[in-house]
């Protein structure tokens, strides 16, 4: 896992101003702690790759004179990072501090003195009280995607102990101190570049962010940032556009998002607030695309239903249909005439839809003969839920009102069709709507991110998703 994967959640690219968000996200201290754990594992693996070059030199050692030495084949045996902290610097950024770390190293030594005497063996070096502090910056690259970098780093190597194996034991203490110093300096030069590499290794993962996420053949949703993240001492709050668009055509709806803010909750790692603007922008997109229409034929009605889509059934309520079009099957076209309106109230989501129902008789040559057009006003309740990384839903019918728009068969009582049309809505239209809603639309995500312990609450004008996060793979 890469360093501080949670950083991807605080930098979802291009920043513009003057626009209220459709989606608000809060990363809590619990989320930061999870990010710290992932980050430390990544840094630990990086530090294990330290390559210490061979070291050689000479030193005057009393009483034997100049001693030439070399250290070679040095390998990191173990790295321990027992203590670390990831801190938010309000209004600035992120600081990672590592303390009480240690590095264990094994290598070979060789010496030559009095011109002809040689000796050699191996050694183990333990470096303790290692401290590392780095500051991490989050910016946007030329494609508008987030990029992170280590803007400052300090590493200090504390105490060290070296143990020699082989050779004449009386030599050990003679050159122990200067070899100790040489090794500590070599290690210290390696640490910060490797930490910077660990931070940079996150950038390929950041490119997996679904900044523009495809929903289906009609729509995509944009999660670009509309303002810079707000960094406090306990959380990072940031604002995403959260707006649906027709694929290939970014047309703004005739309404704008209202400002909203998330409550100060801390039980979960992450809180995602999705405003009613976001869902209404979806309704606008699908209505504009002409996707909110459905032809209904008799084969879509359950076989056991006594009500059939034919002129005989409808003729029982409108006799002139049976007389003018005897023995014909029928087809209904249900479609919206304007974008549905979605409202969020505490524990309640309602959709008001205005549409028409056009009835046709199907002639023997498949020609459609219009019979009537009804104006349809419906209200449905929506149950929302999170399924994996998608927000999904299901609707149930609240009420339905019919009025006559146009009749091609003369006057008739519209109320007589209430039971037929209500049955059609319940057994055909709403099940098809629910099949689509169950597919859901994608939430902001990074790579193989998984939401766990997720709860969803509907509040005034927005829904609040509280969740923990896991990165898998």
From TrEMBL:
GO terms for biological process: defense response to Gram-negative bacterium; innate immune response. GO terms for cellular component: extracellular space. One of its GO terms (molecular function) is lipid binding. Residues 264-467 form the Lipid-binding serum glycoprotein C-terminal domain. It comes from the Eukaryota. Keywords: Antibiotic, Antimicrobial, Disulfide bond, Glycoprotein, Immunity, Innate immunity, Secreted, Signal. Disulfide bonds join 153-192. Residues 1-18 form the signal peptide. It is found in: Secreted. Pfam families: LBP_BPI_CETP, LBP_BPI_CETP_C. InterPro entries: Bactericidal_perm-incr_a/b_dom, BPI/LBP, BPI/LBP/Plunc, Lipid-bd_serum_glycop_C, Lipid-bd_serum_glycop_N. Residues 26-249 form the Lipid-binding serum glycoprotein N-terminal domain. CDD domains: BPI1. Monomer. Homodimer; disulfide-linked. Belongs to the BPI/LBP/Plunc superfamily. BPI/LBP family. The N-terminal region may be exposed to the interior of the granule, whereas the C-terminal portion may be embedded in the membrane. During phagocytosis and degranulation, proteases may be released and activated and cleave BPI at the junction of the N- and C-terminal portions of the molecule, providing controlled release of the N-terminal antibacterial fragment when bacteria are ingested. The N- and C-terminal barrels adopt an identical fold despite having only 13% of conserved residues. The cytotoxic action of BPI is limited to many species of Gram-negative bacteria; this specificity may be explained by a strong affinity of the very basic N-terminal half for the negatively charged lipopolysaccharides that are unique to the Gram-negative bacterial outer envelope. This is Bactericidal permeability-increasing protein. The gene is LOC116037010.
């Amino acid at each position: 896992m890469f360093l501080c994967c949670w950083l991807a959640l605080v930098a979802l690219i291009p920043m513009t101003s003057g626009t209220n968000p459709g989606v608000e996200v809060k990363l809590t201290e619990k989320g930061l702690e999870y990010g710290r754990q992932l980050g430390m594992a990544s840094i630990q693996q990086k530090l294990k790759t330290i390559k210490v070059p061979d070291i050689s030199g000479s030193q005057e050692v009393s009483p034997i004179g100049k001693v030439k030495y070399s250290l070679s084949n040095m390998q990191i045996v173990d790295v321990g990072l027992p203590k670390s902290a990831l801190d938010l610097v309000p209004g600035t950024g992120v600081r990672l501090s590592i303390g009480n770390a240690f590095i264990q190293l094994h290598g070979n030594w060789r010496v030559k003195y009095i011109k002809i005497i040689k000796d050699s063996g191996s050694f183990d070096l333990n470096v303790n009280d290692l401290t590392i502090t780095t500051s991490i910056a989050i910016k946007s690259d030329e494609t508008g995607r987030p990029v992170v970098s280590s803007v400052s780093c300090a590493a200090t190597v504390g105490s060290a102990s070296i143990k020699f194996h082989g050779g004449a034991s009386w030599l050990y203490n003679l050159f122990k101190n200067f070899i100790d110093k040489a090794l500590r300096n070599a290690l210290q030069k390696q640490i910060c570049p490797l930490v910077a590499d660990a931070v940079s290794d996150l950038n390929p993962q950041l490119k997996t962010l679904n900044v523009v996420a495809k929903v289906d053949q009609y729509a995509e949703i944009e999660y670009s940032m509309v303002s810079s993240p707000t960094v406090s001492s306990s959380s990072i709050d940031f604002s995403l556009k959260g707006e649906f668009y027709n694929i290939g055509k970014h047309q703004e709806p005739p309404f704008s998002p209202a400002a909203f803010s998330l409550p100060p909750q801390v039980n979960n790692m992450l809180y995602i607030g999705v405003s009613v603007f976001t869902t209404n922008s979806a309704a606008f997109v699908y209505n504009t695309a002409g996707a909110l229409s459905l032809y209904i034929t008799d084969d879509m009605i359950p076989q056991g239903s006594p009500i059939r889509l034919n002129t005989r059934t409808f003729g029982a309520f409108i006799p002139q249909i049976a007389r003018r079009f005897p023995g014909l099957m029928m087809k209904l076209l249900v479609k919206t005439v304007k974008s549905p309106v979605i409202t969020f109230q505490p524990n309640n989501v309602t959709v008001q839809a205005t549409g028409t129902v056009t009835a046709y008789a199907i002639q023997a040559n498949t020609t459609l003969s219009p019979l009537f057009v009804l104006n349809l006003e419906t209200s449905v309740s929506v149950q929302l839920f999170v399924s994996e990384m998608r927000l999904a839903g299901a609707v149930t019918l609240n009420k339905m009102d019919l009025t006559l728009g146009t009749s091609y068969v003369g006057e008739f009582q519209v109320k007589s069709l209430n039971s037929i049309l209500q049955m059609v809505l319940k057994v055909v239209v709403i099940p098809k709507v629910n099949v689509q809603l169950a597919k859901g639309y994608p939430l902001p995500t990074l790579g193989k991110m998984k939401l766990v312990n997720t709860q969803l609450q509907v509040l005034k004008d927005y829904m609040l998703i509280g969740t923990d996060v896991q990165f898998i793979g």
